[in-house]
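Forwarding the complex inputs:
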Amino acid sequence: MLYVVLYNYIYERQPVPHRDDSVETIQQEMTAFARRARATAARMHPELSLVSYTLLAHLDDQRGCRATDLAAHYFLDKSTVSRQIAALEKLGFVERRVDPDDHRVQVLHPTEKGAQVLANVTASRRQAFHERLADWDEADLDRFATYLRRYNAAQERLG
Amino acid sequence: MLYVVLYNYIYERQPVPHRDDSVETIQQEMTAFARRARATAARMHPELSLVSYTLLAHLDDQRGCRATDLAAHYFLDKSTVSRQIAALEKLGFVERRVDPDDHRVQVLHPTEKGAQVLANVTASRRQAFHERLADWDEADLDRFATYLRRYNAAQERLG
DNA sequence: AGCATGAGTTGTATTTGCCAACCATTGCCG
DNA sequence: CGGCAATGGTTGGCAAATACAACTCATGCT
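Prediction (whole assembly, four chains):
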């Protein structure tokens, strides 16, 4: 045991929460966050569910993509995506353009109206996030964002 | 403006994303994470859904609590909690002890069996997290954990 | 005693998601 | 060329999770 303490002292140079504790915390906090996200989203934007919002946002920032891509990106079943897109289309938020090169694929795009609604929701979401993050300094925000991206990328790689 | 650039150059030594970009990233990554968490959890542990797991874990580490507390803590409707607990009880994972002081409340506890299952799931979740975080150094883990806790605490305060 | 409050349950409807079966298009290989 | 596997997408059927509302029962205050 003494060796561990010494090791930490020499190589870490401060009392360091053990690796396991950090992992434990990350696990718990990520889980708690996941549990709440949907509820929060639903309360904030009854007009556009979290999933719809996410898909629409993805279309917007990819400048159009295929249903299959959406499914892969968000680990959703293709049937789920199909229905979600159908719903968004009925609302007039997305349109389909059949790919001239391959008539199986339809490239999805937000409509003008869709982009509008998306912009509204995004703005209000962003404001909520800003409030939540108001007392963070710039460097912390940046680091936090970087960690999240890194974490999600790892999850994407490992499944 | 020059000062900003210089400041960044000197203190950060690389082009720094604007505050808004960080917030945007955090928002997107948290959302993506939330979207995937349930699916991942379901794939890993068919025997215990993310919600059940979360509730059971909370009972375990609070050494028992009331259904209402669970609902408040996870932004769930009390009916939802009621049914989830009923399911967990039917599986023999939790037991109810009526509070002798107030016959309205039932204090929930994991059973022996429940604690056992919880331990298994926790262990395997923890391993998955460890894999995902394997190439992170200790300091980054610690900082990431701290950010997450801070973020969630803020969300808890602000709704 | 009487009524408001709080804890939980149950009925009902909606949303979300999965799986499997299916259709249409494409591209490849014999 | 002709069949066949692979790909993109839709649809039907189903189960789980959840919200909302109406209800019951115990408590506690006036």
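Chain B has one domain: 47-158.
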